[in-house]
Amino acid sequence: MDFPRTMKRRRALGAVAVAAGLVLTVAGCGGSGDGQSDKGAASSSAPTRSSGGQKQSQAPQADNTVLAEVKGENGLTLAITSAKREAGGFVTVEGTVTNNTSDIWLAETWRGDERELTRNGSSLAGASLIDQKGKKKYLILRDTTGRCLCTKFDGPVRQGQTADWFAQFPAPPEGTDTVDFQVGAMPPATLELSQG
From what superkingdom does this record's organism come (predicted)? Predict the structure, then answer.
C-alpha cells in the first residue's frame, strides 16, 4: 500500500466533499430572485431573525394590501394580505400577526385541539376556512406525518413585533369567492379569494 498516495486521495476526496457541501448550501439559500419566498416557506416576504430567533417581517411593501384585519386576544392583530386559489385544489392564505399586547405572545392556542396537531407546536394548525354559503368548514391541510401545511413559529412574538405566516386549506367549490378565516380566539376575518 502506497501511504503518501492514499493520503493525497483522501485529502482530494475531502476537498471535493467540502466543495459539494458549500455548493449545496449556497443553492439552498438561493430563491427565485423576485423577493418572494417559495410557497413552502413560512412567509410571503423574506424574514429576518431577531436575537431571540423569531422571524420578524421586514418593512411592509407598497403592494401588500390588507384584505382583512381583526383584533382580539388582548391586543393581538391578525392581518390577511393574500388568499389565493392554487392549481391542485387548495387555497393559500398569507398574512401577519402583530403583538400589541403587554407581554410576549406564543401561538399555543392557534395549534388546534386534535391530538395529531399538538406535534405542530406554536403554529396555525388549528386555523380553518368557513364557507357560509355552502355551510362547510375546511380544516388546514396536513402532510402524511400529520404536520400542518402552515407556519410553525420558532419562538415567541415579542411585544410590538410582527411575524409573517401562511396556511393552506382545501379549496371550496368554484363560485365560492367569500370565506371566513378563523384561528384561536380571534374573531373571524371575512375575505375574498383570488385566482393564483
Answer: Bacteria
